[in-house]
Design a protein that fits this description.
Residues 1-29 form the signal peptide. InterPro entries: OM_adhesin/peptidase_omptin (IPR020080), OMP_A26_sf (IPR053724), Peptidase_A26_omptin (IPR000036). The chain has two domains: 1-37, no CATH class; 46-330, Beta Barrel (Lipocalin). Helix 1 (3-24) crosses helix 2. The protein contains two helices and 13 strands; from the N terminus they run H-H-E-E-E-E-E-E-E-E-E-E-E-E-E. The protein is mainly β and 331 residues long. The protein has a ten-stranded antiparallel β-barrel. Helix content is 9%, strand content 69%. It has helices at residues 3-24, 26-34, and strands at 48-66, 74-95, 100-120, 133-137, 139-159, 162-180, 183-186, 194-197, 203-224, 227-247, 252-273, 278-300, 304-330. The protein is elongated.
Length: 331
């Protein structure tokens, strides 16, 4: 073989793979494609989401007074009930890192039906049914009720549609109710011998609670197609509570401080994606603040501080259930 022939064969051998890759052999072209760098998967978590919701809320705030430092028995119990309340609220979420989301949310009651029952045991406590004084107030007005919650979720597990998050945050919740009118049964000369009514146009009692709650918890999310189911459990042993009770007819103001207290909250939710950007949401939220014990300061109009009862003369608790539906936008 001549030198020119050898050069021609070498040139054809070098050019043959290039020609095949350009389309002479589909199998070879496919093999080259498999050697390209893989394309990164797009995260299913949106960078930012905003949700508006409305729904129904029911709850009861408890106010308690005990004979301290006498014998510690129950002296008074007021049940402040929130019925058929309409709520309006919103939630925001920002995906700060692949594993960390920052969240904020809140709601406010815009309409409600309420009631209050006041029980007193001025002749000694021998079980709940031994009350000596009772009053019922159907005209109880919810002056305010709202909640603000800020926190974060750190994802530590994600596989096969299931994700788990560690939760931490701070929740502020307050309720205030005013009582007008009402009926009563009192024990004056005998046992439950006096029956009467209060002026329906006059403020009787105004009561407000403030709940400050730093919390931790655990969240779970399961995604399948267009559906997403969520659940969260939070708790706190460090709740700080304040309360104020104004007895307008007696010109008395009671202030109370409680700490620490326990709280537990449970949320269950579902989302359905109607498009890439929009989802319909539904959620049930329950929170329970266990009875807290604290001291009471009593102020008389024009006289200032007139009495002080040490802890645990006062008690307060709160239970709430909220059911909502909403619309969520993913950006």
């Amino acid at each position: 073989m001549s030198e020119s022939t050898r050069a021609l064969v070498a040139l054809c051998s070098a050019a043959m793979p290039l020609g095949l890759a350009a389309g002479l052999s589909p199998a070879y072209a496919t093999d080259l494609g498999t050697q390209q760098a893989p394309i990164a998967a797009v995260s299913s978590s949106p960078l930012f989401s905003a949700e508006v919701f409305s729904g129904y809320l029911a709850g009861i705030a408890g106010e308690y007074v005990y004979r301290v430092p006498v014998d510690g028995s129950k002296l008074s119990q007021l049940n402040w009930q929130i019925d058929n309340a309409a709520v309006l609220g919103g939630r925001l979420s920002y995906q700060a890192l692949d594993w960390l989301s920052l969240r904020a949310g809140g709601w406010s009651v815009i309409a409600s039906d309420n009631a209050m029952d006041d029980f007193d045991w001025l002749r000694g406590y021998n079980g709940f049914d031994s009350w000596s004084h009772w009053s019922s107030h159907s005209d109880t007005r919810l002056a305010k009720a709202f909640q603000i919650d800020i926190g974060g979720a750190a994802r530590f597990y994600e596989q096969n549609g299931l994700a788990l998050d560690a939760l931490a945050g701070y929740r502020f919740l307050t309720t205030k109710m005013n009582v007008y009118g009402g009926n009563y049964i009192y024990s004056k000369d005998g046992f439950r011998d006096k029956v009467g009514t209060f002026d329906p146009h006059e403020l009787g009692i105004a009561y407000q609670q403030w709940w400050h709650t730093p919390y931790v918890g655990l969240g779970a999310t399961y995604t399948a197609g267009s559906w997403r189911v969520t659940g969260e459990v939070i708790t706190s042993p460090f709740v700080v509570v304040k309360a104020k009770d104004h007895h307008n007819l007696r010109d008395l103001l009671f202030t109370e401080d409680f700490a620490p207290d326990w709280m537990v909250g449970v949320d269950l939710g579902a989302e359905y994606a109607v498009s890439e950007r929009l989802s319909l949401t539904a959620k049930a939220e329950y929170q329970k603040y266990f009875e807290a014990a604290g001291e009471t300061l009593a102020y008389k109009g024009g006289e200032g501080l007139v009495a002080r009862a040490p802890k645990p003369a006062a008690g307060a608790d709160l239970n709430m259930l909220m059911l909502t539906v909403g619309l969520k936008a993913n950006l």
